[in-house]
Each structure stands twice: as structure tokens, then as C-alpha cells.
Amino acid sequence: MANEASAVDYRTLLEGERASLVHQLQEIGFGESGNLTYDANFADSSQVTAERGEAEALAAQLRESLEHVEAALRKFDQGTYGICERCGKPISAARLEAQPATAFCIDCASVRR
After folding, report:
1. Coil, strand or helix at 60
2. Fold of 10-112
């Protein structure tokens, strides 16, 4: 890891974030299969359709965040966590504390957008 001087345990932060995201997905009805489960016998099908659309949009955001967290954990295993994917320089400890799953330093993140 590039920022070993920091006392923050980024792996623990990332694992906590992963657990939180998985829990949130389960709470809105997306289990381990990744498919939405809902009561098919619900009387108001338009309500089910609206809620399903909202749940799917939220799940897409949660899955994207989960993918970033999983990628950061893989970088830990590879020894490349904390290195910017664009410029190859270390990502600042402050940025990693704020966004442990980030793949880019602040300079490269601002250029990307």
C-alpha cells in the first residue's frame, strides 16, 4: 500500500463498507442471487411496478459502489491499494479516509469528470 504511514486501517473500512452495501441490497429485496424479490400477490400492480423501478435504480447505485469496494480490496491483495490508476502516484491519506474505494488521486479525479 502506498500510504502505510497512515494509522487508518483501510481494509477494515472497505470491509465494513462492503458489509453495509450488501446489507442495504438485501434490505431492498436484492438477495445473494442479485434478483429482486417482492410479493407477487400485492393487489396494486402499478404500486409494485413503481416500487420495483425505484428499488432497481437504488440497487444499481449500490452495486456500482460495491464493485468499487471489491476492486479496492483486490488492490490490497495485489499490493497496489492507494496508487492512482491514472498517474501512478500515491493517493493522499485524507482522500482515502474520505473515499476508501477511490481509484484516483484528487488531481486525476478532477480531470476525469
Report:
1. helix
2. Four Helix Bundle (Hemerythrin (Met), subunit A) (1.20.120)
Q: How far apart are CA 28 and CA 58, in angstroms?
A: 9
Span 63-93, pLDDT tens digits: 999 999 999 999 999 999 999 999 999 999 9
Residue 27 confidence (pLDDT) above 70: yes
Q: What is the pTM of this model?
A: 0.76
Q: CA 92 to CA 10: how far, in whole Å?
A: 12
Is 62 in contact with 26 (CB distance < 8 Å)? no
Cell reading at 102: 477511490
